Every structure is written in C-alpha cells, then in structure tokens.
Amino acid sequence: NTLWKDPVFLDGTSEMRNSAKNRNRIAYLSGGWLGTLLVLLIRPAAAETPQPKQYALDWLGRPEVVEEFGRISDAIWSYAELGLQEHKSSALLIRTLEEAGFEVKTGLAGMPTCFVASWGSGRPVIGILAEYDALPEVGHGCGHNIIGTSAVGAAIALNDVLPDLPGSAVLFGTPCEESTAEGAGGKIPMV
To answer: Within 140-182, where are the H helices?
Structure first.
C-alpha cells in the first residue's frame, strides 16, 4: 500500500503525451477553488491518515500559516490583474515559493507572468496548478486569488513532507486563464 502512485492519463498510459485527451486532463485537473478545497478537506479519520499527510494537514492548519496565506490571497484579490498582466500576483507567489526553498523559473512559454517552481527529485512527480488572474470588470469572481494561494500552500506543505518521501513537487503558475483573448489559457502553451 503506497502513499503516492504514478499518474495514469486518460489514454491509459503512464507517460505524458501530446494528445488532446491529456491536454484536456491537465485543464480538468486544475479543478477550480472547489476542487482545491475538496482535496484539502476530504480525508480519512485522524487514526487512518498516513503520518506524512497528517503532518502536511497539521502545518496547513496552523494559525500563523492560515493568516499568512490569507494575507497572500487578500493581496492577490486587491491586485485583480488581468491575464498576462499578473505581475504583482505572480511576483508574490514566486517570492513565497522561493522563501520556502523552491527553485523557480519565470517567463516561460513566451508569457512574462508564467512560472514553474520545483522541489525534490525523482519520481513520482506531483504536479500542482496555480491560477492567479482576474476577470475584466469583475475581479476575482472565480476565486483565482484563492486557487493560486491554496496551490502554493499545498506545494509548500508537500515540500515539508517530501524530504521523508521519494519524489518531487512541481507547481505550474498558469497565467491568463480567464481571458477570451487570442493566446489565452496559460496551461496550453506550457504543454
């Protein structure tokens, strides 16, 4: 009974291939804010929770951690930056990840606010998607301030667990997810 398993994509393989099915899976796995919350909230009773997972959940529940990530979410909410203009939002998330020891590459796939943060080495590779752009005239009506912040929090919690487990974590900072403009959808050029 292993804690982590290798991914199996929609086409039944365990390898990432450049197929429409797998690109759709990447988009689906972002899950939105509800999916992020469900992943964090649905868990077995404490007696059944594996020790590394319980450690990560305990870290996420610390009052100082909740307060810190609440401030980050509020800051991104106040910036309300549109797609490919998320300079303050991406800089805040990047700085938070770097302070936690992640190696961060920026400006990827021709997008200035795109980034990939990684920690650890080897397999399995656990990927987390972070969205942080806002809607025109609405702001963060879809909660991307929460999605980006909770993704970074989950990655940092995972980072704390990984030294005791095999594998690595990769957080994909995906800009421009709300726009309908040409070139919108930061996940697609990242594939």
So the answer is: 144-161
